[in-house]
Amino acid sequence: MGTVKLCIASAILTAGMSIPAQSEEFTLGGTTAFTTNYVFRGVSQTNNNPAVQASLDAGYGIFYAGIWGSNVDFGGGPFGQDIATVEIDYYAGIAPEWQGISFDIAGLYYTYPGAYDPAGNFDYFELKTGASYTFGEAFTVGVANYWTPDYSGEIGDGDALEFSAEYAFGGKLFNFFTPSVSGLVGRQWTEVVDFTYWNAGLTLGFMDNFAADIRYWDTDLSDAGCAGFIGSANNCDSRVVGTISASF
Fold first, then answer.
1. The three-state (H, E, C) secondary structure of the chain, written as one string
2. Is the pLDDT of residue 12 over 70?
3. Is the pTM of this model over 0.85?
């Protein structure tokens, strides 16, 4: 895994030294979303319940930063208290382009304010290195690696490697929707458990700033493996997730 991560990082840094100057313009935007299940790398973060999510993003040239939040449900503690109910993530990075390849290198910090966490620190940092390429303005393929020196719960270092693909159809469906299909296969390595996760789904964009997505998620974690990893046997099963989102 270290070799893959270093290769991606080297490619990004090499591209960054050779890209032409890009226009510097400050941008500010955000998203809001309602989803039937907050799934992260194939694992439900809301105990298979709905979530409301939002983000705020700022950019300047190739630089960007933002904050993202969602409700979560990690179950109850020994005295009936909620273990965690809120997740707030902070991120910043650069997204240069070179020879048609879009690179992304960023730091992400996942936090759980007010969490009941006597056994270890839920908050953790990840380094993202990724690249994507679009063929003919319709078919996009990408690869990304997420490395952490200490995964959530202080269980040691970890890696997640993802391969993704998306195809955007030309024209509009029923003269209203802009359809695309996408999928992802990933592998998570930790010092506690390793597992593979994947998804596939259909996204329908409409009214310029809105999208509806329906997606199938699954992992190869057994019930026992899921319980050992996150303390619940039912949060790693196959499921279909629906999401409505808006951007501004």
1. CHHHHHHHHHHHHHHHHHCCCCCCCEEEEEEEEEECCCEECCEECCCCCCEEEEEEEEEECCEEEEEEEEECCCCECCCCCECCCEEEEEEEEECCEECCEEEEEEEEEEECCCCCCCCCCCCEEEEEEEEEEEECCCEEEEEEEEEECCCCCCCCCEEEEEEEEEEECCCCECCCEEEEEEEEEEEEECCCCEEEEEEEEEEEEECCCEEEEEEEEEECCCHHHHHHHHCCCCCCCCEEEEEEEEEC
2. no
3. yes
